Amino acid sequence: MNSRLRSALRLLPQYLGDHVLLSAAALALGIALSLPLLIAARRSAQVRWPVLAAASLIQTVPGIALLALFYPLLLGLSALTHRLLGWRLPALGFLPSLLALTLYSILPILRNGITAILNLEPAILQAARGVGMTSRQRLLRVELPLSAPMLMAGVRTSAVWVIGTATLATPVGQTSLGNYIFTGLQMEDWVWVLFGCGAAVALALATDQLLALIEFGLARRRPALAWLGLAVLLAGVGAAAAPLHAQSRGGYVVGAKNFSEQYILASLIARRIRATGHPVTERTGLGSSLAFQALAANELDVYVDYSGTLWDDVLHRTSRPSRQRMLRELRTSLRRRYGVELLGALGYENAYVLAMRRGEADALDIHTIAQLARAAPHLTLGADLEFFARPVWKALERRYGLHFRALRQYEPTFMYHALMSREVDVIAAFSSDGRIRADHLVVLQDPLHVIPPYDAVLLLSPHRAHDPLLRRALEPLIGAIPIALMRRANYRVDRPRHKRSPRQAAEWLAHAAHLR
To answer: Is residue 334 predicted with pLDDT exceeding 70?
Structure first.
């Protein structure tokens, strides 16, 4: 536990700094947008109702969905700006997170402000008119100052919402305190999960108390307290951002999907690039399609994907060529269509496989997927969050006539627990996962060869396709990682006891594979 806690503390300046900058920028932008809307809506029901309805509607969209929806929109805008202006709008990471969190921040500010102004004493407003104040003067000298305490209460609510929702920005490539939570959940590292939650809670409480000081100063007509709270708040943002400015934000960007093997490989790749003296940023926890789109748009420089995933989901091919022919055609097609370079295969395969508990498989005499089809109506299948949307599942379902009693989706780690606790009977596992052997699972044979090869391959972005330094750093990985070593590295992260971090597993893998 101590080593995991030290590892979490080591990353805190980066994660906290990114989280604070994102939250502060979203809250500031939310306030800047809310105030004009508040002014427009304060006296007009025709404006007030649609503005509040739209802000309320945004709150009904789950935070992670709102964050994800901005990515394809920005990706399209990025392609447009590239054609028209020669530069690409960033579509991954900070910008989609900022836009989504800004929209989330508006409702409490707007609703509290409108409520405060509409409930001002009519006598006060009448007196302001009586002394000859214009509408603008009444707004600036009477309405906004008297509404400020309640408006600040809305800002406090908004700040807490934004800080909490910012932890969901990790899957769209934005570093935040959510990196602790998503990585910890995947690896069942509850120290990291609790550390990430605790850091987010502490940040939200500290921010809320400083905003409360500003609110108190405004309510009691003590501007010195309000200015003190604002000064400490800005100083805190500056202090959190300082470590980020000390680091170079350039260099290379390494991507990873949202499971243990990808975290290990990202750490291994980053380790080799850093050895050349160049800075590296890791963007982990990405979905499969998001990772490839980000690479093709030069938002990532390098990541590891799998040949079957690229064949089915990116090229939309249905044929099943040999392993070598698939790799050749992938290299040619990805280069021609997307400018993406397939540098080479790492030496092992991580294919989807259907797996069962050994005792149940033996009792039902199921050793192939064809035999599974007979018993499937009485069984439940569990899979990761992407499997049932993949062409490989549609092909398996169609070719073998698979009709299960129920289908359930899990994060990959919890999928294995669901199988061992008998919540499901079959899982769509991963062939390079060490838990297959550790849990004594039976991998069902695929006699019709429906499942394509899933060789792990290194992909380079169009911008980095011919980068000599990156190629020299990564070419030693080609063909250097056998399946046995990858399984052992994965299990070092996934095993129930004596867990290792992805970075430690990557260091072990580099040593075991004799990578200099």
So the answer is: yes
User: Beta strands of 278-351 (E only): which ranges?
Assistant: 280-286, 302-306, 341-349
Q: Is residue 435 part of a domain?
A: yes
CATH number at residue 471: 3.40.190.10
Please name which of 19, 69, 297 lies closest in space to residue 175, comparing C-alpha atoms.
19
Rounded Cα gap, residues 55 and 442, in angstroms? 51
**Count helices and strands in the chain by DSSP H and E runs:** 22, 10
Q: Which of 246, 276, 309 is at the close of a domain?
A: 246
Q: Are residues 271 and 242 in the same domain?
A: no
Closest CA to 109 of 157, 47, 43, 161: 157
Cα separation, 67 vs 93, whole angstroms: 10
Least confident of 111-115, 346-350, 475-479: 111-115
Q: Domain holding 133: CATH number?
A: 1.10.3720.10
DSSP 378: G
pLDDT of residue 244: 60
How far apart, in whole angstroms, are the C-alpha atoms of residue 20 and residue 238?
9
* E-strand stretches of 359-400: 380-383
- Among positive and negative, which fits the CA dihedral 177, 179, 182, 185? negative
Q: What is the pLDDT of residues 352-402, one digit of tens each?
A: 999 999 999 999 999 999 999 999 999 999 999 889 988 999 999 999 999
pTM value?
0.78
Instruction: Compute φ and ψ for 481, nearest 5 degrees.
Output: -120, 100
In a domain? residue 453: no
Q: How many C-alpha atoms does 68 have within 13 Å on its Cβ side?
A: 14
Q: Which helix (DSSP H) or strand (DSSP E) does residue 405 occupy?
A: none
Is residue 454 in a domain? no
Split into its structural domains, the chain has a count of: 3
User: Domain check: are 335 and 358 in the same one?
Assistant: no
pLDDT tens for 27-63 read 999 999 998 888 888 777 788 888 888 888 988 888 8
Q: At what angle do helices 94-118 and 45-60 cross, to 10 degrees?
A: 140
- For the residues of 52-68, what is the DSSP string, one character each? HHHHHHHHHS-HHHHHH
Maximum Cα–Cα distance across the chain: 92
